[in-house]
Amino acid sequence: MVKKINHIGVAVTSIAEALPFYRDQLGMVYEGSEEVADQQVRVAFLAVGESRIELLEPTSETSPVARFLAKSGPGMHHIAYEVDDIVAYLEQLRGAGVRLIDEQPRRGAHNTRIAFIHPKSSGGVLTEICQAGDSGAEATH
After folding, report:
1. Does some domain include residue 140?
2. pTM summary value
């Protein structure tokens, strides 16, 4: 079962250029940045209540975020829902005929486990399922 909206991913060409709007104009709390090398992305985390906005900057021209930016420009990239047991949740989705991008969870930022649902199964919205890591950190992409 989905516990909450964990975060909304926003694709940007530059975290340094985008961050001041979210932090200074909107007043969100900047929680730091992290690079997720296997996803070729740098992520900046901004708290909004119990959820986050994640600014996603590609670190390679071939990354999925770079391809998104080339096709669509900056903007909302995905929405992430937090679950307690990602493996069981993926099995449930698969059993319901939901098209998955990730058949098995993979590593996300903050030592989380993540998997993506194909937009064709979720009304055109790239959807992430995430589970908090062993450290107890909130799940983020």
Report:
1. no
2. 0.88
CA distance 19 to 36: 18
Place of tokens 């194909």: 118
Q: Averaged over 73-93, what is the pLDDT?
A: 97
CA 30 – CA 20 distance, rounded (Å): 10
CA distance 141 to 139: 7
DSSP string, 73-129: -SEEEEEEEEES-HHHHHHHHHHTT--BS-SS-EEEGGGEEEEEE-GGGTTT--EEE
Domains identified in the chain, total number: 1
Evaluate whether residue 141 is within a structural domain.
no
137 assigned to some structural domain: no
**Cα(1)–Cα(92) distance, integer angstroms:** 10
Token pair belonging to 8: 């909304």
CA–CA dist 118, 104 (Å, integer):
14
When computed from its CA atoms, the radius of gyration of the chain, rounded to whole angstroms, is 14
Q: What residues make up the domain containing 70?
A: 2-131
pLDDT tier at 133 (50, 70, 90 boundaries)? confident
| CATH classification of the domain holding 73 | 3.10.180.10
In a domain, 79, yes or no: yes
